[in-house]
TrEMBL record:
Source organism, top-level taxon: Eukaryota
Protein name per the record: Uncharacterized protein
Organism of provenance: Staphylotrichum tortipilum
InterPro entries in alphabetical order: DUF6601
Keyword terms of this UniProt record: Membrane, Transmembrane, Transmembrane helix
One Pfam family here: DUF6601
Transmembrane regions listed in the UniProt entry: 256-275, 295-316
UniProt keyword Membrane, yes or no: yes
Length: 361
């Protein structure tokens, strides 16, 4: 069993001065989305079931199952300052999903997905009430229970630590506020002050230096490459970590782009072979004749095979999604008929079940 201090919320900085006079749930969002069952999206009230909301909001999706292989996706180092990401041409994309935080793409846009800081994580009262374990909790290695807050707490601390690294200077602070990455005061929409942020960031750094074990190991490696995460996930689970195509048009455009580039290369080789066959030396060379014949057949069949595989893959995704598309209306009507109470009763169990799995889009 961990020492008592391990189960507590270690931060003491109050980012907004009047937070301690509020009801703890006042800092929660209006609603949140979760998956009651795989493939079935639902919308709930976070104040109805705060533990279920935290399990969903702070879920890392499929990352915990890939922790041993993250060395392939990113270096073990703190996050770079925000202004350096901008200077390197990366587009900061706001995405309110923890499992996508600080994942970068290698496409022409060079996107970096960043999750904004939720208001409730800067509320000392809320964190002390909802991210501390009860006395006698068996964390840091608890069974699957609804009382332990060890995993959500470590994810929250690791997430805040990345922001202490991202926002180092006042330049980073202004960039973060322009992107609305930091929460604002509910009364006047004013952002957190620079002195308050400095105090919180320094406390996070000191806490991390004192006991890094209370921070989730995912955040030991800040920026991760999404393409490499997809490769790791395909090798382990045969599924990508995150879909890179959300429409069939994007799917075909992406695949036809590299197919066109490969076709240009094949055309260059065929042209060179044609020139070679026009020379006396290569025209009578049996090995070159066989190579030319084989590559010509390959140049004819390969594009047809690649296009056929693309069509089959698109049909596979369509067939897999078809039951959900056809059955969604019926399930929604049945849920409305039985009322909302059973949904909230099952929500925590579903959230605990989904932790460690990839949230579906």
């Amino acid at each position: 069993m961990a020492p008592p201090g391990f189960r507590l919320w270690p931060l003491k900085t109050e980012a907004f001065g009047n937070e301690n006079r509020k009801c703890a749930t006042d800092v929660l969002p209006a609603t949140y989305h979760y998956h009651a069952t795989p493939g079935k999206r639902a919308v709930g009230d976070p104040a109805e079931d705060v533990p279920a909301f935290l399990q969903s909001e702070l879920s890392l999706g499929g990352l915990p199952g890939l922790l041993k292989h993250l060395w392939f996706a990113g270096a073990a180092r703190p996050a770079m300052p925000l202004h350096l990401h901008v200077a390197r041409g990366r587009e900061i994309v706001v995405l309110d999903q923890m499992h996508m935080h600080l994942l970068s793409t290698n496409d022409s846009e060079g996107r970096l997905f960043v999750k904004p800081v939720p208001r409730f994580l800067l509320s000392l009262k809320f964190c002390q009430e909802n991210l501390q374990c009860p006395p006698g909790c068996p964390c840091p290695d608890p069974p699957v229970t609804t009382t332990c807050r060890g995993i959500p707490r470590s994810v929250a601390l690791g997430f805040l630590y990345t922001y202490a690294c991202l926002i180092s200077s006042k330049t980073d602070f202004h960039l973060a506020n322009e992107k609305r990455l930091l929460p604002r005061n509910d009364h006047n929409d004013e952002p957190i002050s620079w002195p308050s942020w400095k105090t919180l960031a320094r406390e996070l750094l000191h806490t991390h230096a004192h006991d890094p074990s209370i921070f989730h190991p995912r955040f030991h490696r800040a920026e991760l490459r999404l393409s490499r995460l997809n490769t790791i996930s395909r090798l382990i689970t045969s599924r990508p970590y995150a879909r890179s195509h959300h429409s069939y048009g994007n799917f075909f455009r992406h695949n036809l782009a590299w197919t066109a580039a490969a076709t240009v290369f094949v055309a260059l080789v065929l042209t060179a072979m044609q020139v070679g066959l026009a020379t006396d030396r290569l025209q009578e060379d049996p090995a070159f004749q066989r190579a030319s014949y084989g590559f010509t057949v390959f140049a004819i069949l390969a594009p047809l095979g690649v296009f056929g595989l693309m069509v089959l893959r698109a049909l596979f995704h369509l067939a897999r999604d078809m039951p959900l598309l056809l059955g969604w209306g019926g399930r929604r009507k049945r849920a409305a008929a039985v009322g909302a109470a059973p949904v909230f009763d099952a929500k925590l169990t579903a959230a605990v079940t989904v932790v460690g799995k990839q949230p579906e889009p």
